[in-house]
Fold each of these.
Amino acid sequence: MRDALARQTPVSLANIHSALECNDAQALYQAAHKLKGSVSNFPGADAIEIASSLESAATAADLDRARSLVPQLAAALEELMRRIEAALVGTPSS
């Protein structure tokens, strides 16, 4: 699952950025929804809630709010990957 997430995350973020550049709320919703599904395999990850908020912003066509969520989402995804890597090597995450 880690490898799939590592491969999918950059693609999903690129799709999110592209949708925002095109002001395409529907494409943004689809990209956020797909990413939320991927990170939902890791309960407790902040990225799940942020991706859900991004979905909501897309549904409301609130692209300014969506843009403000993207840096938070990217940071949460980085933290999730660090936690996964730490768990795999048996070191505590902090």
Note: The first helix runs from residue 2 to 21.
Amino acid sequence: MTEEHGALLEIVSKLEQAWNNGDSVAWTAQFAGDADLIHILGQFFHGSRDIEHVHRTIFDTIYKGSHHRLQVEKMRFLQPHVAVVFIRANLRWYLNGKEQNIEARPTLVVEKNPAGEWKIAVFQNTMISTPAVPKPADTLTQAHPFKGDSPAS
């Protein structure tokens, strides 16, 4: 493992630890000041101030006491100073006293800044939907929300 791989794994570890401690400041410390974040429900946030604010809010409310497990699935270096990190995430939280679990795949674009620090520039979180049983192509076409005319045979 290279030094760069280790630095990226450390970012993910710090994100997990910050989440599990409910620490929005430590969570946001892993992001560049002008970072962009799209959370699991699709809302967009720009800049570390907004990212910290939304995480402080959720750590104090809906995700208070939640537990996040983050596992790096793959790292891809696009350039020596830019990498994409694919993560598998499991979030355990409680709603009205009942345990809830969310599986997601966050994708991070991480940049090495001029000071030599790796910071998250883009964070996109995508919920994993329940896998469907494979169906014949014609039934998938009929069930697809954007039904179009089939090309003529």
Note: The chain has one domain: 3-132.
